């Protein structure tokens, strides 16, 4: 009898990644602290990591992503006078409780009703460090989504949007529509996301394809951040996940060897390597 796939619904990915945040937080030399991650992941998250191929060994990309996004998020909030963060498909992200955010900052988590209910139940006794709102919404409902964006856009001066761990599960068409809908709001100034390449997508499918049948990997534009240009967004910053992993000392065996090998690659190959996987900060472009 075939064992059930570790991931039975897209929401399971939030529990899965929360375990990785817990693993890092419990290290004596942790590069970030999420004291709520283990609680939020729960037994289901632990079971997923045990069942996934290379489960514990693949913690490093998620840990690096969390740390780098924390850095960029805090810097942009201060530098761009951001008054609202819109976190789409927020999952079990606990940044409103664990980061030293401005008390007057509005933070809006958006996710399926079941996920918001679960998260708010688990965090009921904790006090967020900013003004927090959880919105129960299926982001595939475009009319409801655009209505939410209009409400947030009207009520805020400068909004930072986050889609951490979301886009890779969407189709190219769905990402295009999302990019357009976000740009329709003049106050939406920056967009922080992680982006895969076609080469990474092939690796993920080979490693986890069977396990991820309920939430298949889909979006990995060969043009990288240039994909977003026609929809009014331009690259402000790119952080290679590989190079950041070396900086943060959270990487895979032989990483420094591969870093050395890149010195002998052509310029085109080095750029492809740099763009294998990364964290991308987009800024609004008024001309597109």
Can you characterise this structure?
The structure is a single chain. With 288 residues, this protein is α/β, with parallel strands linked by helices. It has a single domain, classed as 3-Layer(aba) Sandwich (Rossmann fold), CATH 3.40.50. The chain is built from eleven helices and seven strands. It has helices at 12-25, 37-51, 59-79, 95-98, 113-122, 142-155, 172-183, 198-208, 241-248, 255-261, 267-274; strands at 84-88, 106-111, 131-136, 159-163, 188-196, 233-240, 277-284. A seven-stranded mixed sheet has the order 3-2-1-4-5-7-6, sandwiched between helices. Helix 4 links the parallel strand 1 and strand 2. The chain is globular and about 50 Å long.
Topology:
Blueprint: H1 12-25, H2 37-51, H3 59-79, E1 84-88, H4 95-98, E2 106-111, H5 113-122, E3 131-136, H6 142-155, E4 159-163, H7 172-183, E5 188-196, H8 198-208, E6 233-240, H9 241-248, H10 255-261, H11 267-274, E7 277-284
Parallel strand pairs: 1-2, 1-4, 2-3, 4-5
Antiparallel strand pairs: 5-7, 6-7
